[in-house]
Amino acid sequence: MKSILLHLMMLLPVLGFAQVGIGTTDPTAMLDVNGNFRLRSTTSNTRATAAKDSILVVDALGNAQRISSKSVIESHLKTFIKGGFASGSPALINISILANAYTTIPFNTIEFDTNSEYNTTTNTFTAKQPGIYSIYAAIKANPGLLAAGDFGLAVFKNGVLNVRESYMNVQLLGININPPNRSIQTLMQLNTGDTVTFRGYSGGVLTVGILSGGEESYFTIHQVR
């Protein structure tokens, strides 16, 4: 008994002022275990809120850390977004496009966004996790404001043109005979932090009036895998 007490008295100062290693002579944490460990029993907890602190994870270096269950679940939620124009927007939103240039379509409202990835101020989607995404956008222009020339939609990834659908406006006796709807759809592989924006394109100087009704002008982004 005296021997056990003596060893504990010798160990207490080490525990209080140094790092302790089990299976290693070079500990890098307060308690550094080089090997497996086992919990023979745990205390039951009936508090539902305790779940947010109950997940123990181990990083690539073997460091044990705590992470909330909410953040783990959200990190695996697939992206589902639908947006368009705010209900308070003018019925007709005019955007000016220079010749052979691109102008951001200012979608400024969200109907739903499961991972909070779309910024309505910058009109930009930023992926929170890697995957394959299905991307779609549609707008309806005011036929009275369209001029003859190339006009369509484009999707940019990280500020670089990724895909474009353009349509030549055709006039007959000064009357536009092509439909005012424009749409684009594509699959895109994104990594964490990649951005997506929707832009209008024109082969000439053009002012386009976009009808802001949600049933006519909107976009969707959803993660397919």
TrEMBL record:
InterPro entries recorded: C1q_dom, Tumour_necrosis_fac-like_dom
Signal peptide range in chain numbering: 1-18
Keyword Cell membrane: no
Keywords of the record: Signal
Domain annotation C1q: ranges: 100-202
Source taxon at top rank: Bacteria
Ranges annotated as spanning the membrane: none
Designated name of the protein: C1q domain-containing protein
The species this protein was found in: Flavobacterium microcysteis
